[in-house]
Amino acid sequence: VMRPEEAGIPAWEGTPEDNAEMIRAALRSFGAATVGFIELDDNTEKLIYSIDPDGKELVISEDQDVPEETEDQRIIPKSARWVITWTVQMSQEGMTRCPTPLGAATTAWAYAVNRAIQSRLQGFLRGIGYYGLGEAQTNALGIGPGFAALAGLGEMSRLNRIITPEYGPMVRVFKMVTNLPVAPTKPIDAGIMNFCKDCNTCATYCPSGSLSTRREPSYETQGGWNRGGVKTWYENALTCRNYWAE
Questions:
Q1: Cβ atoms within 10 Å, residue 113
Q2: Closest CA relative to residue 240, chosen from 132, 160, 162
Q3: Which residues lie closer than 8 Å to 89 by C-beta, 6 or more apart?
Q4: How far apart are CA 2 and CA 115, in angstroms?
Q5: Which among 115, 133, 136, 202 has most CB atoms closer than 10 A?
Q6: Which ranges in 31-140 belong to alpha helices (H)?
Q7: How far apart are CA 167 and CA 24, in angstroms?
Q8: Total-model pTM
């Protein structure tokens, strides 16, 4: 995609509110379901991974003006202070077929759709004079549910995943770091996490018994697969994944 300076025109300049509205409209046209924004600070930076799934270190650098990728690092300039986060809606009909190839295909489809969305958003940002640092592979860059909760796209739940007001848990969450200033969106209280305290339906019917049945969320993790530091209902991912594999 041609940069503005290559086309002989100035880069886009708008207010953070205008920029957010523009990016939301663009992402919706690319196939996203809902869109939110977070400003990075010393606290929210903790949601960026230290190490990406492929083993490369993620470094936020005050000494670098442009992003760079080396053999063992991905360098994010400190000037890139915003995270765009969005959801891709999944098929409820497809997910009822889990754990079967049809259920797995429903999940894989959402990730495949997002590869196109991410590429288009990066091209869009480049075309207006900015950049977007996306996921190098599936579930890379940072913690999707954390970004989604802070951006107000949903609430954490007994699933230890995001549940949205619009689509329930039938979404996948994606994110991108950018140097385009966007107005942050706020977390929500739609009553979802409080509802989870008494509902327990997902834990009751989980065939592998991997979900917590405690009434109150806790900081106590289930194992090394849980990152910790969040008050939630931590799942036993080992028994869950083994059940899927079997």
A1: 18
A2: 160
A3: 33, 110, 167, 170, 171
A4: 20
A5: 133
A6: 92-95, 101-127
A7: 18
A8: 0.94
- Whether 181 and 170 have beta carbons less than 8 Å apart is answered as no
Q: How far from each other are the two terminal CA atoms of the chain, in whole angstroms?
A: 45
Measured in residues, the chain has a length of 246
Q: Which amino acid is at 195?
A: F
Token readout for 236 is 């036993």
Burial 164-176 (b: 16+ CB within 10 A, else e): beebebbbbbbbb
Residue among 85, 77, 78, 80 at smallest CA distance from 38: 85
Measured CA to CA, the distance from residue 151 to residue 37 in angstroms comes to 5
> How do the residues of the chain divide into helix, strand and coil, expressed in percent and rounded to 5?
35, 20, 50
Helix pair 101-127, 16-30: axis angle to 10 deg: 140
Cβ(75)–Cβ(68) under 8 Å? yes
What residue ranges in 132-189 does DSSP mark as E strands? 132-133, 155-156, 162-163, 171-178
As separate numbers, helices (DSSP H) first and strands (DSSP E) second, the chain gives 8, 9
